[in-house]
Design goal:
By secondary structure, this protein is α/β, with parallel strands linked by helices. Helix content is 44%, strand content 20%. Strands 3-2-1-4-5-7-6 form a 7-stranded mixed sheet, sandwiched between helices. Helix 3 (51-62) packs across helix 4 and helix 7 (172-185) runs antiparallel to helix 8.
Length: 240
């Protein structure tokens, strides 16, 4: 079995991170296409490793405090901020994609604890320590290593307690699980296309740890490593 997985990994070139570009990262999608893709992602976020795992990660860093300020970077359709707000956390949702911002503002309009802002994750428009925790979901795999270091450095800068990263990990099993999930739950061509590319663009956990180190962060806790999506909580290096 192990030999078969190694052969599959080599045949899929999973030992090397893919450099393909996802449709959502371009500027050719219509608003309805973005809406369908974000609706698919919200459904996928209900699976194990999604919203609930992110909530657990933030809770861990907050030591179960309820009065907290959370920043969600690359917020997508707003389902993560809604889950955070329902825990009583004041949440700022940040994105740079105009269509995504439009949808996120619409979806979160009835939740007074959520503020949706436009901003660049590489240069966050907030003061040092403005939040208790900064969080991102399915964002890091979109970034090249240097970009990921820059974004996570900024997320560390603005968060007093630490950073939560929810993302895919690269490997044969995650690729297979992602393929099954997007086929079963994806109703959009964007989801079916980008889901498989995402699984091949994702970082291994060792690669993510190297990025975290470059951003001045150290792993505090991690959800099960065998899952296709893994939630990592990290604190400033030397703070534990």
């Amino acid at each position: 079995m192990l030999t078969a997985f190694r052969r599959a990994r080599r045949s899929l070139a999973l030992g090397i991170r893919a450099d393909a570009v996802e449709l959502l990262d371009g500027d050719c999608l219509s608003l309805p296409e973005v809406e369908r893709n974000l609706a698919d992602l919200a459904r996928l976020n209900r699976l194990p490793g999604g919203v609930a795992a992110s909530v657990d990660g933030v809770t861990d860093l907050l030591d179960r405090r309820r009065d907290a300020r959370v920043l969600d970077v690359g917020t997508g359709g707003g389902d993560m901020p809604i889950a955070f707000a329902r825990r009583g956390w004041e949440t700022t949702a940040l994105d740079s994609h105009p269509a995504v911002l439009l949808i996120a503002r619409r979806e979160t309009a009835d939740e007074p604890r959520i503020q949706v802002l436009e901003g660049n994750a590489r240069s966050l428009p907030f003061e040092d320590g403005a939040f208790d925790v900064s969080h991102c979901s399915l964002l890091v795999h979109h970034l090249d290593p240097q970009e990921a270091v820059a974004v996570l450095s900024e997320m560390r800068r603005v968060a007093r307690c630490g950073v939560v990263i929810n993302d895919l990990r690269r490997g044969v099993l995650p690729l297979v699980a992602t393929a099954i999930s997007v086929i079963a739950l994806g109703r959009s061509r964007v989801t079916r296309n980008d889901g498989l590319i995402s699984a091949r663009r994702a970082y291994t956990l060792d690669e993510l740890d190297s990025i975290l180190n470059g951003a001045g962060l150290a792993v505090r806790s991690r959800s099960p490593r065998w899952m296709p999506r893994v939630v990592t909580t990290a604190t400033p290096s030397g703070s534990r």
